[in-house]
Amino acid sequence: MPWSSLFQPVERLSAEQGLEDWYARLLTRLGDTPQPFELALVGGLLAATPGLAFLAGYQAALRMLWPAAPWTAGALCVTENRSTRPADMNTRIDGLQITGRKDFVTAAECADWLLVAAREEDEGQAPRLALGVVRQGAPGVRIEPLPALPLMPDIGHARLHLEQAHGERLAGDGWGDYVKPFRTLEDVHVLTAVVAWQFGVGRDCAWPETLLLRLQALLAGCAEVARQAPDAPTTHLLLAGLFAEQQALADELKVAFAGGPAHWAELWQRDKGLLRIAEAARSKRLEKARRIVAGR
């Protein structure tokens, strides 16, 4: 991991030409086949907004989930009717064809490939998921853009419609091997990217050295947790510690942002809630991990 990136001059990347262009320019800066953690870290440093940092972390997590993914941007499509439970899904995969609808696809506007959770069990059996891959623009694949959200309005969301879309089925169980571990992969890589964004802003704005050193330490912790198995109880315990450390810095960060250019403070005030996404799910995983480690 080239940690020297943290201390080099930063020329931030904005997204006037769209997210697809932003991501392509980020990869150009990184060179050939960067490691996922590097993608999250450097993507966060170069991001002009917290939302773009989120996008870098999200793409890094997808590459951890599917190491053979193309180097274009992708998206994971799970949610139907505000639920991610397999029993609540109606999207189905039959052979190499996928039919259904996904209601909340992050950054769909720039996604070249889409990982789609779809049921494949026979009638009368318990719900069982597979993960299929479809390409945006292919026959039977339609993206319906949704209105921008107050949180990270620069990162679009969309509804995905599939009508006998030709796809590739990835090996393994859709839930246990993909959907479930992605929650942890996304948490650690998005946290990495957002903390890197904070560090870059803080370095440019001459924040107190003690705050910058603690942000560095937090990034080092993220690097270690990113190496752990996403389904291990100890990983969830360590990840909870990282989020607790970020939360412990909240008041100091607020003061630091307030003392610098209003632009950065306004962006952080608008988007700081992104670190609370899936907070309830993290809390449940933490409690389960505690019970497992304690042997209960």
Describe this structure as you would to a colleague:
It is a single chain. With 296 residues, this protein is an alpha+beta fold. It has nine helices and eight strands. The strands form two sheets. It has a four-stranded mixed beta sheet. The chain has a four-stranded antiparallel beta sheet with strand order 2-3-7-6, with no helix packed on it. The two termini are 38 Å apart. The model has no long low-confidence stretch (mean pLDDT 96).
What tags apply to this protein structure?
single chain, 296 residues, alpha+beta, four-stranded mixed beta sheet, four-stranded antiparallel beta sheet, 9 helices, 16% strand, globular
How many beta strands in the DSSP annotation?
8
Instruction: Give the strand order of the largest sheet, numbering strands 1, 2, ... along the chain.
Output: 1-4-5-8
Cα distance, first to last residue?
38 Å
The main sheet comes to: 4 strands, mixed
- Note the quaternary state here: single chain
| Count of separate DSSP helical elements | 9
Helix content class: 40-55%
Quick check: average pLDDT?
96
Order of helices and strands: HHHEEEEEEEEHHHHHH
What is the SS-derived class? alpha+beta
Proportion of beta-strand residues: 15-25%
Low-confidence stretches: none
- The coarse overall form would be globular
Radius of gyration: 19 Å
Concise overview:
This protein has nine helices and eight strands. By secondary structure, it is an alpha+beta fold.
Fold blueprint:
Layout: H1 19-30, H2 36-46, H3 50-65, E1 74-77, E2 92-94, E3 97-106, E4 113-119, E5 129-135, E6 141-145, E7 157-166, E8 168-169, H4 175-204, H5 209-226, H6 233-248, H7 250-258, H8 262-271, H9 279-293
Parallel strand pairs: 1-4
Antiparallel strand pairs: 2-3, 3-7, 4-5, 5-8, 6-7
Helix pairs in contact: 2-3, 2-4, 3-4, 4-5, 4-6, 5-6, 6-9
